Structures are given as C-alpha cells and as structure tokens.
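I had to read the description of the data format several times before I understood it. Each protein is reduced to its one-letter sequence and a matching series of backbone shape codes. The format is easy to grasp once an entry is in front of the reader. For illustration, here is how one protein appears when written out as sequence plus structure tokens:
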Amino acid sequence: MTILSMAGSSGALDPLPKRKMSYFSNRYVVGLTVTAGIGGLLFGYDTGVISGALLYIRDDFKVVSENSFLQETIVSMALVGAMIGAAGGGWVNDAYGRKRATLLADVVFTIGSLVMCAAPDPYVLIFGRLLVGLGVGIASVTAPVYIAEASPTEIRGGLVGTNVLMITGGQFLSYLVNLAFTEVPGTWRGMLGVAAVPAIIQFFLMLLLPESPRWLYLKNDKAKAIAVLAKIYDPDRLEEEIDMLAAASDDEVQPEKSVSYFDVFRVKEMRLAFFAGAGLQAFQQFTGINTVMYYSPTIVQMAGFSSNQLALLLSLIVAATNAAGTVVGIYLIDRCGRRLLALTSLSGVIISLLILSGAFFLQSTSLCGLHTLHGNCGTSLGWFAVVGLALYIGFFSPGMGPVPWAVNSEIYPEAYRGVCGGMSATVNWMSNLIVAQTFLTVVSAVGTAGTFLIIAGVAVVAFVFVALFVPETKGLTFEQVERLWRERAWGSDGSRQSLLAAEA
C-alpha cells in the first residue's frame, strides 16, 4: 500500500493546491485520450449495431426468426467473450502494460468482425460474436485505466468520461450504419464487418503512443515514465508529480509476485474498494441501460411502430440523447463530483422507468392491446413510450454512464489496478449478460410494463448502495484515494494497520 507523507493530518484528503489544467490545454493528453477511447468506440458500436442487425439476421436465417433463445444468444455471446476478455485483460494489463493490452484487443476484435461478416450460418456468426467480445472485454478494462493514469487529477474524471463518450458515440454511429445499410443486400454483414475499421485505425495509432507512465514507474522504468510525464505537465508541475510517484514507490509494500485475484480479498481496504467499484458496475447494467441500447429497436416496435426503418430511426434519436447526456456528464463530473452525479442520475432514472412502465401498462389495457404490435393502433401511447426512453437516457447518461468507469479507474492502488479493474469490468459484463439473455424472456413472462417496474425497483436499491458505500473521489490524487480506503477500513490509524495486514 502507498503511504504519502503530507503535512497536517487533518487535511490529508484535501486535493493538493496546484496549477489546474483544462481539458484542451494539452494536445498530447487530448490525443492520447481520443486514441485510447477508440476502444470505447468499439465497445459502443458493437453494443448498438447488433440491435439493428438482429432485425435483418432474423430475415436471412429462418431458424433465428423462429427461436428467441437463439436471438438472445447472438447478442449475448459477445458478452460471454467480454467477460472472459475483461477477466484476463486485467492480468494482461498488469503483466504486459496498457499499450500491449490495447493492441491485443484490436487484433482479436478485427478477426471477430471479419468472421461475422463472412458467417454462412448463425453458429459461425455466434463464434465471431465471441471473438469480438474478447476484444471488447480487454478494451473495456484497458482504456479507462490508461486514460486515468495519464490524466492530471483535476480533469481525470472528465477525461475518463471521454471514453464513455466514445462508447455512446459508437452506439450513435452504429445506428447511422444500421440506417445506411437498410437497402443494401446482405445488410447485416456490412453492419458487423465495418466494425473492423476503427480497430485497425487504433492499432496503428497506439504504435505511436507510449506506455502508461504509472505502469512504467511501477516496473522501475523510471526514465521512460518521466519522459512521458514531461509531455503532460509543465516543469513545475512535473517535479511535483515525480515527487509523489517517488514517495509512493518508496513506501509501497510491493508484492513478491504478481497480484492474484484472490489477493484482492485478503486486505480489508481492497475488499471495500472492490465492493464499491464492482457494485457500481453491476448496478450500471441492472438499472437497464444496455436493455435500452441492445433492444431499443425492438422496444420501439413493442411500442407500436412496425417498420424496421422507423424503429432504427427512433433508436438513433435515443443514441443521440445518450451521447449528448454524456457530454453533460463530462462537464459535471469534476465539478459536482462522482457521488452526487450518480445519485442525481439514479433519481431521474427511477422516475423515467416508472413513466415507461406506465406507458406500456396503459397500452396493454387499451382497446388496441399489445396484440396489435404490428399495426398502427396505439401510436400515441407508442410515442409516449419513446419519450420515456429518451428521458431515461437523458437522466442515465450524465451520471451512471461515466461514473462507474471513472470511479473504477481511480480507486485501486497501482499494483492492483489492472486486476481489480478487470474483475469489476467482468462484473459489469456478467450483469450485462444476465440482462441481455433474460430481457425478452422476462417481458414474455410479466409484460413490458412489469419489466420496467422491476428495473425501477433495482434503481432504488442502487441509489441506497451509492449513498452508503461509494465515497467521493473528485480532485483526489491516487495516493489520497488509497488513504481514504485505509481510513474507512482501519480508522485514523489506517496506515499502520494496513501495513500489518499486508505483512500478514
């Protein structure tokens, strides 16, 4: 554990006074963030494109149109791959660095995209989805950590949020592609195959970028670490950052071997940090976001709009709202803080889900009923449901979109950051898988109104969780965040107790 000596214990968790940087004051940082964020673009594009492609895959493969479980598997197999990729990606990050992990993700994603494009049957398509998921899973761990470790403290949340903006931008792009390919033969093949392009672009751009300075310093490659930091900070600030890294390195209890997944649970403060981080990731999914993004065209059809093209167009509006809300989140996250932003976001999500549930309940009890799904009846209530979806995204995207990824990129010590980031991302993908694999089944069992009401209940639990277990990390250095967890675990004498626990 890192122990950073600072004068005055009463102000131990106060942000350090320093010359503040703005988001665009350093072109190098912006370029690094955008390049690393292409991983988020891949993540978002895959999330969005499958929802539109599925409408046409059903048309091409009769067995898919007749089997809802096979439809869910086509969506969910990427999530299985992402779970595996995220779990292994944490170890790859710590062992081989953030840069090599990103390059690996790009290669695997590209191969998967080409396999999907050429798939002769649904089962080869599912294999391609697995490969794409592996790449997305590795990228989902790597990009936030890489950006956070190269970011000045005062804008770290917003820069990590840029990765989430790339995710939402990828989703928006996917719906544009969905619409563009609606009249092209073999529509879904083009939708899925074009995903290889950004992965190839990121691969070559990453070859020009350095490794994370904090990872280099941890691996005792201090000269390279300082050379990278010199491109980020002015000379005065550079000296301060190097001093903090040196103090952290000198006082850190280095593990004799690579940190394992089980090591996370042996130290009390690590358990607390992982519980908070993994809980945020789980609730991000269980409050319904990727239900909306994966199945938004299907939800729009449930709302009474039968045209594939109209469903995709309305979903494009939902994706645009998601991207716009993320921009608001980037602006607010380093001003209002992570915790307040998440609580406000969840409050709006609960209200929006209740509106959605009410819209579908009213439609199901109208003269038209849900049995007129492919007719024009109930269009007014359908528009009400679409407005509810847009409100949901508008509340979710500024808070529960970026906050879980930002918090997980900054709450773990350097030696644990890759492993814990991978584990928490795996929780995210596992939760994502459960939602994707069960959503249509739950809708069939309890109806659309009941499904959204259940999700609203989960959002209430999420609100309580954030209020009780997630601390504010706005403006804190990595070392100050470590101290925060030690004090939560052991009280004011946290440093000594932590050392004793580590030695044990």
User: Anything to note?
Assistant: The chain has a mean pLDDT of 82.
